[in-house]
Each structure stands twice: as C-alpha cells, then as structure tokens.
TrEMBL record, chain A:
PANTHER family: ECSIT EVOLUTIONARILY CONSERVED SIGNALING INTERMEDIATE IN TOLL PATHWAYS (PTHR13113), EVOLUTIONARILY CONSERVED SIGNALING INTERMEDIATE IN TOLL PATHWAY, MITOCHONDRIAL (PTHR13113:SF1). Pfam families: ECSIT_C, ECSIT_N. It is found in: Cytoplasm; Mitochondrion; Nucleus. It comes from the Eukaryota. One of its GO terms (biological process) is innate immune response. Belongs to the ECSIT family. This is Evolutionarily conserved signaling intermediate in Toll pathway, mitochondrial. Keywords: Cytoplasm, Immunity, Innate immunity, Mitochondrion, Nucleus, Transit peptide.
UniProtKB/TrEMBL annotation, chain B:
It catalyses: oxidized [electron-transfer flavoprotein] + hexadecanoyl-CoA + H(+) = (2E)-hexadecenoyl-CoA + reduced [electron-transfer flavoprotein]; oxidized [electron-transfer flavoprotein] + (9Z)-octadecenoyl-CoA + H(+) = (2E,9Z)-octadecadienoyl-CoA + reduced [electron-transfer flavoprotein]; (9Z,12Z)-octadecadienoyl-CoA + oxidized [electron-transfer flavoprotein] + H(+) = (2E,9Z,12Z)-octadecatrienoyl-CoA + reduced [electron-transfer flavoprotein]; (4Z,7Z,10Z,13Z,16Z,19Z)-docosahexaenoyl-CoA + oxidized [electron-transfer flavoprotein] + H(+) = (2E,4Z,7Z,10Z,13Z,16Z,19Z)-docosaheptaenoyl-CoA + reduced [electron-transfer flavoprotein]. Keywords: Acetylation, FAD, Flavoprotein, Membrane, Mitochondrion, Mitochondrion inner membrane, Oxidoreductase, Phosphoprotein, Transit peptide. This is Complex I assembly factor ACAD9, mitochondrial. It is found in: Mitochondrion inner membrane. GO terms for biological process: fatty acid metabolic process. It is a peripheral membrane protein. GO terms for molecular function: acyl-CoA dehydrogenase activity; flavin adenine dinucleotide binding. The gene is ACAD9. Residues 72-180 form the Acyl-CoA dehydrogenase/oxidase N-terminal domain.
Length: 458, 628
C-alpha cells in the first residue's frame, strides 16, 4: 500500500511534464523502500510464473551460478567505495577482461552483479555499461547473453498494476533501458526468442514499451531476414579459392557463367632455399561473354582493369575485369536476319514480325523511357591472391584456351594501386609485398604494358 | 425447311460436279502449277476473313463431298488396308522391338500406301487430299506406321511432288511411290528447331559448277536410318539484286548413294517407337546441280509449303485412333460391374464417352472440311486451316486417350493392354510438325497480318481522332449493345444451316462478330508489337480454332441432316453440344482480351514465370520452414 502515494506523486510529475531527471530522483529515493512489499504481495497472483521461484531471478537463470570468488571480492570492494557512477561498472568489466575477453567472463560479471545486491541497485547503469562492453567481449551476437542481461532487471517491480500506471510511462528509465537492450539486439540483427518474451513480460508487463519494441522486432525481423536475394553468409569461406568462387558468382549473377580455377595457391621452395608462392587465380566467364569476345575487333585492345573492391559484410575482396571500350557507332554491325526468314507470311513456322504500319497504343505502352548508356563489354572477371601483371597475364593466357581470339588482340593492363586502403587490416602485410607496381604514372605504364603484352603473345 | 433442304442439295450437287472436275484439274496442276488459270483468281480465306468479323459462308457451306465414283474407289482401297491393319500388323511387337518388321513394310508397299498422293503416271495411287485423309484414319491405328508413312510422303517426297522438275519426278517418284525407296525430310538441326534462320548445313558449289558439296548434320530425322532419298535444306551463297553475296536456303534431293551420308543410332523414344528417328550427317556429299528443288535460294518457300500442306491429315488420323479407342473402352465399360452397376451407368464415366465422341466428331469435321477445301481447284492457301486442324486434333486426341485410360483404370496403365501405347504414341502429335505453341502463333499472326493490312487505315484515322470514324464505331458499339442481333445469313430463308442447328449458328455468328471487334481493338492497342504478346495471341488462336471447329460441325451436321445419313440426329446433338460449349469458352477468352479485364491474369502469369526462370527453380520456401 505504500506504493500508492508514490505513484500518485509520480503521476503529478508527469502531468506537469516534469523531466525524467526529476523522476529518477524519486525512483532512487523511493524504489527500494516502497516497491518490494507491494510486489511481494502480488507474487501469489502472478499469472506468468508457473513455477515458484526466487523473485528477482527468471526461471531460466536460477541454476547458473558463478563460481568466481575474486570477482565477487572486486564487487564487494566496489560497494565499499559506494560509487554509483557508470565508470565503476565499466571498471567491473575491464577488470574481468584482464584475463580473457570471453563469454564466460562476461557472464561471470553479470552473475556477480546479480548476487551482490538483492535489490539490484544501479542495474540500469550496469546494463548500459554491459551493452557497451558486449562487442568487446565478442558476445554482441549471442541471444543467451542478451537474455541474461535482461534477467538483471528485477522482476515484476515495473509491471503496471492499474490503469493509470498503464496509461502513463511507468518507470520510464527502466523501460528505456529495456528498449535499449532490444535496440542493440536489433542493430546486430539478433532475433529475440521466447525466453526474451517471457523475461520482458515478467519485468515490464504485457503492454510496456519494451514489449512493444519486442513485438515490432518480431513483426519486421522475420520479414527482413530473407529479404536479400543475394545473401552473404555470416561466416565467409576461409579458403581463398572458395571465397573467390563465391564472390565471382555473386558479381556475375549469371547461372550460365562458369568458374575456372586457373591456379591453386601453393608454395614452393626452390633449390636455393627461396620461397616462391603461387597465388590463386580464379576466373569466371559466361557463354555470352565468350561469344561477345569472339566478335571483338582484334585491332582494338582489351583491357585488364582493377582492382575493384567488393564488400562481403566486413571483408573486402578485389576483382579484376577483362573489358573493352564501347564499340564506336561506325563499327557497329547490325546483325541482319534475312527478311525472308523472319518476315510475315514467309517464316517457316511463324512470323517473327508482321508488316504493319501501326504502333503500340499509348494506353498500352507500359514501358519506361530508359536511356541506354553504352558501355564497353566485360568479357571476363577474375580474382587472384596477387594483383600484379604477371599473375594477371597468367589468367589471360588461361582464358586464351577457350577464347582463341585473345591471341590476336593486344591486351593492356591498367592496374590501380587502390588495393591497399580498401583491404582489411590483417591483409595489409600481405599486400605491401604483393602489389609492387603502383600506378604512379598510369600513362607510362600503359605504354609499357602494351609493349609487354604484345611481346607476350606467342 | 423443305426448301432449305432442296437448296442445300442443289448446292452439294453443284459442288460434287465441281469436285469431280477438280480431280482432273488438280492432277493437271501438279504438272503445270503455274499454268493453272484459276490459281490466281481464287484465294481462299475463310479463316482469315473471320479476323475481320466476316463469315465467308460460301467457302464452307455446304460441306465438301466427294463423288460417288471416288467414294467407290476409296472404299476399294479402304477395305484391304483395314484388313491388313487388323490382321497383319502386330503393334505390340513393333512397339517392343522398336522396329517395323520387313514383312509389314512389304505389305504396306503392296497396298500402295507409300505413294497415296503420287500421281498414277508415276506409279502412285493419285488420291486427293480427302482420300488421303481417309486412308490416314486407318494407318493411324499403329502410330509408328503412321509416322513412317507420313514422314515418307507427307513431307519426305512432297518437295519433289510440289516443286520438282519433270525429270526429277520421273527419276525419283516411281521408286518412292512403290516404296522401293523411302524418303525423309531433313530440316531440323541441333541449333535450329523452330528457328529456320539458324540452319548451319551448307552447300557449296564445286569449281566445275556442276555439283554442290553438302556439309552439316540434321537431327530428329524420321526415317533417317532407312531413307534412300532425302529432301535436305541447306544454306547456299546466292547473289542478290545488288550483286552482294547472301546466304539463302536451298532444297536438295540427296540420295544416300551420293556418299558421305551417315545416319546415327536410332533414338529410343517414348512413343511411336517403331518409327526410325535418328541423326543424319552429311560430309562432303556431292549433289549434282540438277537435284536442286525449285531454284537455288528458293528452298525456304518450299519448306514452308511442305510443312503447311502436311498437317491437315493429322485430324483424321487422330479421329481414326480415338474411334478405335472408344470401341475398346466402351466394351470394357459395358461389361465391368462395380457396386452391382455397370461402369457405363455412372455419370462421370458417361461424361468421358461424351467428351470422346464430341472430340472425334469435331476432329473429323474439321479434317474433312479442310481436306475438301484443299481439293478445290486452284492453289488455295489452307495453311491456317490445316494448322488449326493439327492443334485441335493433337490436343483433343491427348484428352481423349487420357479419359479412356481413366475409364479403364489399372488396365489402361499396364503393358498387357494396348492403351498405354496409345497414350505414348499420341503425345508426339502435339510436338512434331511444328509444336502447337508455334502453330498457335502462326495461326494468330497470319490472321492479324491479314486483318491489319485492311484495318490499318481505319485505325489510323481513329487514332488521329477523326470524328467521323469515331462516331461510326461508337454507333456500331451502341447498336450492338442495344441488342441488335448479328446476322450473317447462316440461318433463315437463304441460310445454309439446317433449322435444327439455328441456335448454334446464332452463337457462331455472335462469336464471329465479337471476334472481329476484338481483333480490331487488339490491333488498335498493340499494332505491330502484337508479335510479342504471346498470351494474347494464344487466346486469339484458340478462339479462332473454336470458330473454325463450330463452322465445320455446323456445316457437316447440316449436310448430314439434309441428306439424311444414318444417325444424323446424333450428329446434330454433338454439333449443338460442342457449339454451346465453344461459345461460352470463346466469350470468356474474348472478355479476357479486353483492356483492363479483371478476368485476365496474364501479368501475374508472366511475373510468376519470370521469377521462376530467373532462379531456374521453384523458389518458394518449404511449408515447414520457420523464421523464428
């Protein structure tokens, strides 16, 4: 019954549009003394808890108890200091992180916090701190950890019990904190599960803001989950050849395109003791590209260009193109089909066109006005562990097997040095060795390359 | 009514006389096609005129007849052939061994079935298209034999018959007609099925200018393994008007004896297993220049004419097969008892027999009407009609066989009975000689082209906003909506249709009128881009097929009732039933063709197909899949 004056007071503040800060003072001041009896009284009528259980602990986490004693000591130490600022909770995690930033340690911190005070004093600050630390501990994608974090909230305390409470923002700071937990889950694409729902109901009640957030997530997430027609797996293939295979099929998006592995990665040790590593070369070409290449005018060069970046989640890979300049209009040959074969009343089976002076009616013309921008054809793509000219030349000679025309066409290498900035941090070491020739003066290089490539042809 | 009958009789008699004189004329036209005076003066356009909303009733009424002498002659041919097929052809064995035994082939040769349409002077039977269709009814009792014969004479030797020189005919036809040599038709290539433009087989002139060297390979060649004479289509270099070299298609008569002709292993097929289908490869085959059919570069028209003329007989062939099937199935349904009732007493079984009878009746009517039209003097272009017969009968045949199998239950599904063989044999009909899809396109586009030529001016005026034309059309529409009945004069005082079929004739008239305006609005809406609207064209073709079928049954039943053939009341019943059915179907299709029609689902259909084909798979998640 002690609750009532407090809630009335709270309402008044709300009506007066008092700031949250003011409310928080009330919370911190009154909560520990006023709330608990009320909830205790309610405990017997609760409809969620089928199993009798300890008040502040969800049924799920009752059993998991920390065996760490040193952490407990730390916390006791903290309490002694009686500091309640955010910094202390941060420290808690930092101390725990000293041995190893792992899920187990993170859970231990949560457990110790739960044990240290039956009233869970400062849990909101603690949860905020924990949310911030999650990526550091590598648990930001772990639904069980989120549930455990939600479990830090005391149960049933914040559940509104009458229509007035329900109507207004009951325990806004706690609710907001709960929403934040869900928000972070959302940002990492973690779908809440049944346990999350049970926890939220126990903590905030059926129609609370976190519950609404949960419902919204549950509405949208399943819909978004499979929306990407080109899904990238969370775990990318480790093998560079497999990764290239995946990336190239992704770019090409052509079911007819065929992947060819021109060279598997390998390392040799020569007699002189030198280590020679052969990078992988994986290429893709579709039959359509092959026919286009076969029609290429041999007097015009084809270009090997790259590297171009392709992002797969947080990894960046690079690919190279074999392409040509757009065909100038004067050289374009219209492929004429014999009118006899396609014309009306003559076609062998049915006419491909009919001879009428009537256009499509405007009302039935659903086509868009599209400006076609002429671009040079891309004849093939490849990915390699080493983006130097020698390696790419190897790719071109591999392509030549199926595209004999490449023997007559001058191949120009136009390679950028943009490789470095775009690669993942770990890869940079490899790179500095690999990508020797940077395109400092492109023109010069092209000229050189033309000579080189022509010399290269047998 | 009496007057009508007399009138019809008079007309048939007149027609009979013309037909009688026709045969002589036709044989003449085979020899000197360009000398035939009537060829240019008369162009038959019943189906095409339907696109304009016109009923050219004089073309199709009364139903074509053959003379009594011809009928007698025909009966003389039919009896021994029927006897041969029932007694000496072992279809089961042919199917199992995938080969027609030589004795059977010899029997067929002795009956003259290898030269049914070859003129008598070249040793053939010299029969008309109508009579050929009648014999086709019997030969179709065995699918493999029917296909072998058709590949031989409907397409294989047709080129020589239609466009060959006197020397070529004298040299090749006698031995082909006797069956000593078997012919094949080599058009399809690995890279060119329906797309004749991509024929790769090439014929190059030798230096002495007396021979062509033929190189390339052809696939799915019926009789390919046993043919001595082949009609081969190949690319040749031709100088066109501007003096530029161009590739054109030329038809050649190639003897296996020329050398360099190899045939591959016979294909192991689903049905018509006894017929021989294989790949034929030509390697530097030396073909003398005299063996070019028609002129160099003119092979294209020849191929088209051969294909167009070969299709009509499928209607009667199908009908022959289903008639036999009905007999066998009905016997089963009449004897087998279930729940103390005969199968024949169950409504759903009865329905199946009605469907079969109706289909046979329509097929027959269409086939013999078309054959009759083709037998008329001149060189009538019946390609659209022939294509319609092929589409209708191949699909109707499939439905009938399937229904028959349903009646038979398990018996139909086992190899101990011939029914499953019928089903397998029948499936090819929808595929060869131009698939039904392609023929639908042909039917619809040919008509659209014809109607478009005539309507272009009017539509252009309308688009320009010519008030006069617009009012004329609005007025016409208003009149139609006020319930003005369409009258093409099929019924009534001068009508050609028997009064007992008046209602059906009215339905046909209404359909035709609506069809005309539908075509007009389609042309208005799509213009020449209608070529790309395949789903629209499919409905146009289907409607036209039904219209032609209605015409055929009305014409046939009117004749039957007028001259009082046996069971004519059954024909009237069938005709009325079919017309009613077709009328509603046509109306539905034509409503779908209206703009923004809620019945039309084409956009969705295209979208579904597109999504499936993009992924080349069925893309829905499994129903048991969960997202959380």
């Amino acid at each position: 019954m002690a609750m009532r004056p407090f809630s009335l007071q709270k309402r008044c503040h709300f009506i007066m549009k008092a700031s949250r800060f003011l409310l928080q003072i009330h919370h911190t001041g009154c909560i520990s003394s006023t709330v608990i009896p009320g909830v205790n009284r309610l405990d017997t009528q609760l409809c969620y808890g089928h199993v009798p259980r300890w008040l502040h602990c969800s049924s799920a986490f009752c059993k998991s108890k920390s065996d760490s004693t040193d952490l407990q000591e730390i916390i006791e130490h903290e309490i002694e200091k009686k500091t309640k600022s955010l910094v202390t909770h941060d420290e808690l995690f930092e101390r725990a992180a000293r041995d190893a930033k792992s899920k187990a340690n993170f859970n231990r911190v949560l457990d110790t916090f739960n044990k240290k005070d039956i009233r869970r004093r400062g849990h909101v600050e603690f949860i905020y701190a924990a949310l911030k630390k999650m990526p550091e501990f590598g648990v930001e994608r772990d639904i069980t950890v989120y549930n455990k974090l939600l479990d830090v909230f005391p149960k049933e305390v914040f559940v509104p019990r009458n229509f007035i409470q329900r109507m207004f923002n009951h325990y806004p700071r706690q609710q907001e904190c709960g929403v934040q937990v869900l928000e972070q889950m959302e940002n990492y694409g973690i779908m809440p599960n049944m346990e999350t729902k049970v926890l939220l109901v126990q903590i905030f009640g059926e129609k609370s803001h976190p519950m609404r957030k949960y419902q919204r997530i549950m509405y949208w997430f399943p819909k978004f989950k499979n929306l990407n027609p080109f899904p990238v797996p969370h775990e990318l293939p480790q093998d560079p050849v497999d990764l290239s295979r995946f990336s190239l099929t992704r770019i090409a998006n052509d079911l007819d395109a065929k992947i060819t592995v021109y060279q598997l990665p390998s390392t040799h040790i020569t007699e002189a003791g030198e280590e020679i590593s052969h990078p992988h070369i994986v290429g893709i070409q579709s039959p359509e590209q092959r026919t286009l290449l076969a029609k290429h005018n041999p007097s015009r060069p084809v270009f090997v260009e790259g590297p171009f970046p392709l992002w797969l989640r947080k990894t960046c890979v690079h690919y190279y193109l074999l392409r040509a300049d757009p065909i100038p209009p004067e050289e374009q040959i219209e492929e004429e089909l014999e009118p006899e074969l396609i014309g009306p009343e003559q076609s062998l089976f049915y006419p491909q066109c009919i001879d009428l002076d009537l256009k499509r009616d405007l009302g039935d013309d659903d086509s868009f006005d599209v400006d076609d921008v002429v671009e040079g054809a891309v004849y093939a793509m490849c990915m390699t562990g080493q983006g130097d000219q020698a390696t790419l030349a190897q790719w071109i000679s591999g392509l030549q097997e199926n595209n004999p025309i490449l023997g007559q066409v001058p191949t120009v290498f136009r390679l950028d040095s943009g490789f470095r900035e775009l690669q993942k941090v770990e890869d940079i070491h490899h790179d500095s060795e690999q990508n020797q020739h940077s395109g400092a003066e492109e023109e010069h290089i092209i000229e050189e390359e033309v000579l080189h490539s022509q010399g290269m042809k047998r | 009514m009496n007057l009508n009958r007399i009138l019809a009789l008079l007309k048939t008699a007149k027609l009979g006389r013309t037909l009688l004189s026709t045969r002589a004329g036709k044989e003449l036209s085979f020899q000197h096609p360009h000398r035939c005076i009537q060829s240019s003066s008369r162009s038959l356009a019943y189906a095409k005129d339907l696109f304009l909303g016109k009923v050219n009733k004089n073309e199709v009424f009364p139903y074509p007849e053959i003379s009594n002498e011809e009928l007698e002659e025909l009966k003389q041919f039919v009896a021994p052939v029927e006897k041969f097929f029932s007694e000496e052809v072992d279809s089961k064995k042919i199917d199992e061994e995938a080969k027609i035994p030589p004795e059977t082939l010899d029997g067929l040769k002795a009956l003259g079935l290898f030269g049914i349409q070859v003129p008598e002077e070249y040793g053939g039977l010299g029969l008309s298209n109508t009579m050929y269709a009648r014999l086709g009814e019997i030969t179709s009792l065995d699918g493999a034999i029917a296909v072998t014969l058709a590949a031989h004479q409907a397409i294989g030797l047709k080129g020589i018959l239609m466009a060959g020189t006197e020397e070529q005919k004298a040299k090749y036809l006698p031995r082909l007609a006797s069956g000593e040599h078997i012919a094949a038709f080599c058009l399809t290539e690995p890279g060119s099925g329906s797309d004749a433009a991509s024929i790769q087989t090439r014929a190059t002139l030798t230096e002495d200018g007396k021979h062509f060297l033929l190189n390339g390979s052809k696939i799915w060649i019926s009789n390919g393994g046993m043919a001595e004479i082949m009609t081969v289509f190949a690319r040749t270099e031709v100088l066109d008007k501007d003096g530029q070299k161009k590739d054109k298609i030329t038809a050649f008569i190639v003897e296996k004896a020329f050398g360099g002709v190899t045939s591959g292993k016979p294909e192991d097929k689903l049905g018509i297993r006894g017929s021989n289908t294989c790949e034929v490869t030509f390697e530097n085959t030396k073909v003398p220049i005299e063996n070019v059919i028609g002129e160099v570069g003119g092979g294209f028209k020849i191929a088209m004419n051969i294909l167009n003329s070969g299709r009509f007989s499928m209607g009667s062939a199908c009908a022959g097969m289903i008639k036999k099937l009905i007999e066998m199935t009905a016997e089963y349904a009449g004897t087998r008892k279930q729940f103390t009732k005969k199968l024949a007493d169950f409504g759903m079984i009865q329905e199946k027999f009605a469907i079969m009878a109706q289909n046979v009746f329509v097929m027959e009517s269409m086939a013999y009407l078309t054959a009759g039209l083709m037998d008329r003097p001149g060189v009538p272009d019946c390609s659209v009609e022939a294509a319609m017969v092929k589409v209708f009968s191949s699909e109707g045949g499939w439905v009938c066989v399937s229904e028959a199998l349903q009646v038979l239950g398990g018996i139909g599904y086992t190899k101990n009975y011939p029914f499953e063989r019928y089903l397998r044999d029948c499936r090819i009909l929808q595929i060869f000689e131009g698939t039904n899809e392609i023929l639908r396109m042909y039917i619809a586009l040919t008509g659209m082209q014809y109607a478009g030529k005539i309507l272009t001016g009017k539509i252009k005026e309308m688009k320009k906003g010519n008030v006069g034309v617009v009012f004329e059309i609005l007025g016409k529409k208003l009149k139609d909506s006020l319930g003005r009945t369409v009258d093409f004069g099929l019924t009534g005082k001068d009508g050609m249709v028997h009064p007992s079929l008046t209602e059906s004739a009215k339905m046909l008239e209404q359909n035709v009128a609506l069809f005309g305006s539908t075509v007009e609005s389609l042309l208005y809406r799509y213009g020449k881009t209608i070529v790309d609207e395949q789903l629209v064209l499919k409905r146009v073709a289907d409607t036209l097929i039904n219209l032609y079928a209605m015409t055929a049954v009305l014409s046939r039943a009117s004749r039957s009732i007028s001259i009082g053939v046996r069971n004519h009341q059954h024909e009237v019943l069938l005709a009325n039933t079919f017309c009613k059915d077709a009328y509603f179907k046509n109306n539905y299709w034509m409503i779908q063709l209206q703009k923004n029609s809620p019945e039309n689902n084409d956009d969705n259909i295209k979208k579904i197909a597109q999504e499936v084909l993009e992924n080349r798979a069925y893309i829905c998640s499994h129903p048991l899949e969960r997202t959380y």
